[in-house]
Amino acid sequence: MPHTQQPQTQELTVDVVVIGGGAVGENAAQYTIEGTDLTAVIVEGHLLGGECSYYACMPSKALLRPLDVAGTSADVDGVSPARLDHGGMLERRDSFVSNYDDSSQVEWAESAGIQVVRGHARLVGERTVRVDDSAALTITARHSVIIATGSEPKIPAEFEGAEPWTSADATGVVEIPERLAIVGGGVVACEAATWLSGLGSHVTLLVRGSGLLSDNEPFAGQTVLDGMKAHGVDAVFNASVTSCTRENPEPTGLGKIHGGAVQLKTSAGDFEVDEVLVATGRAPRLSDLGLDAVSVTSDQVLGDNLPDWLHAVGDASGDVPLTHWGKYRARVVGAKIRATATGAPEPFPVEGPPVPQVIFTEPQVAQVGLTEAAARDQGIEAVTAEVPYNSTAGAALLRNDVPGRAKIVVDRSTRRLVGATFVGPEAGEQLHAATIAITGQIPVHVLRHAVPSYPTVSEMWLRLLEEVPEEFRRPAD
Ligand SMILES: Cc1cc2nc3c(=O)[nH]c(=O)nc-3n(C[C@H](O)[C@H](O)[C@H](O)COP(=O)(O)OP(=O)(O)OC[C@H]3O[C@@H](n4cnc5c(N)ncnc54)[C@H](O)[C@@H]3O)c2cc1C
Ligand SMILES: NC(=O)c1ccc[n+]([C@@H]2O[C@H](COP(=O)([O-])OP(=O)(O)OC[C@H]3O[C@@H](n4cnc5c(N)ncnc54)[C@H](O)[C@@H]3O)[C@@H](O)[C@H]2O)c1
Prior knowledge:
By secondary structure, the chain is an alpha/beta fold. The chain is built from 15 helices and 21 strands. The strands form five sheets. Strands 1, 2, 3, 4, 5, 6 and 16 form a seven-stranded mixed sheet that branches. Strand 4 (120-125) and strand 5 form a beta hairpin. The longest helix has 20 residues, at 323-342. Nicotinamide-adenine-dinucleotide is lined by residues 156, 183-189, 191, 208-209, 279-282, 321-322, 357-360.
């Protein structure tokens, strides 16, 4: 009688198990063990380095930078406009994603003393994780298990069966669709519209709301929209997709066109395109993780209401889904676990540091802390100052045409900055000064003594602070 050979089961005990080896999981493991004898394992089901390295931040920014350089070369007198090389752009992307090979990340992890285990991990009991790969492995954590499983795209039901593109296809683009619809008006939609129209697609944005980038100051979405229109992108607002069908939908592979023509019915009319990219947000990846086995619900993970041996970081935790923010939180969690496990003092906490974000559109949108609307929603008496991005000699030197604006939001009661937005060429490089001012809780009368160099774009800070009411030039009584 034939018999099935049982897979070999192995066992391993370490101090900390991290499920998910994205940038955030890597940081959590590194900060938990560094400078100690603690041991850590990262279990990764796909590529060590996660979404950011292979399917999100790095490939998208690798594709966007040549457009920025070409745009600048076309807008500075005395320079001949640079010609885009579409094949070269894709090669640059391939190089930034290491051709989807994670061996250098594995080398880094091992050099940091972190063991990497391949396979899908599930919780099977308190402090216990089972990894299913070619052979089953059970790992026991002496101290903690950290969930760092990231997030996955939300695909509305209308697109089921139509094999739409997700952002991974857009960053991994191989076949450039002649006509592309992008559903959504958020960050992925705006950045992807920029690089895919730059690669030659005719892009139509189908936006459910009435503007782009609705979480930002209103002038951000408007300036980005103006920039996109100048590059031939069409945007249709108040357009809800009611059905999506296509001939011969097929999972042809990453970045390839997934079948025949796509028919989209929307509340703002019908559209036929060669591909549709669904960019309608992301959700924490918490299914198939064995939460039931340890009597924990997704809500508990998202509410940070977990047993003391279990932690969640990064996109999986429901916190702001940005790489640098997830990594920051992972460093904090890692340092806490290290302190508990070794008896070392916990690092000094800082109250409520602000979240910065740069959106790499043309022009860029850079925002930190609260918008004016968010500050008012929180009951803050917000005083604002706003100037055009081209208000300095440095900005005039940057390009011939400098669109955009800058705005700061000040809390009247503390006289400190609570938010700042810069929209304009290379705006991302303006942001960190604002992040430092908010984190350092510097009152605006002190900020006036931080002198920006002439002739740089950062002289915009002088203009902004001059726009703040006169009474803010002294400490509060
Ligand atoms: C197109 C796009 C562009 C972006 N650009 C930026 C940007 O410019 N700047 C920025 O700050 N943020 C950006 N983001 C957001 C950023 O990518 C995420 O915030 C970041 O990747 C989250 O990191 P993470 O480690 O939490 O999750 P991930 O990077 O998703 O890593 C999670 C890892 O866990 C693994 N995994 C999941 N479940 C299991 C399991 N059960 N067992 C084993 N392994 C498992 C996955 O394979 C994956 O490798 C972008 C996002 C998108 C979609
Ligand atoms: N440069 C960066 O920092 C960067 C770049 C890309 C992505 N990200 C992060 O990744 C996350 C995901 O980005 P995203 O753009 O997918 O999400 P998002 O939340 O920024 O935008 C989602 C968009 O889809 C719309 N939408 C939601 N459901 C819809 C539906 N059923 N039908 C039609 N429209 C719908 C929303 O109104 C919104 O315009 C974001 O939090 C973002 O910050 C960051």
